[in-house]
Amino acid sequence: xxxxxxxxxxxxxxxxxKEVDPSLYRSxxxxxxxxxxxxxxxxxxVSILSRFMESPKTSxxxxxxxILKYVKGTLNHGIVYTxxxxxxxxxxxxxxxxx
Length: 99
Hints:
Structural class: mainly alpha
Helix content: 25-40%
Low-confidence stretches: none
Shape: elongated
Number of helices: 3
């Protein structure tokens, strides 16, 4: 995937249907699941791919490759966890709740 082109979107929905190596597909999905720790925007797409672990088809493999191409095009995006001495957890909500 080092020489692959980047992609603007993480998934396509129209691909061909042939069987692929389940072991290789599981490895791809497992690595993508690991990546969702810092790229939560991919969680939905990876969860769709994980539904087909038992008998993946070419369309599922191509969708996984499409996610990798998207990641390649957005390498500067993500969440960075850094160590800090002055840690504060701050949360915000824009909801309006009335009883």
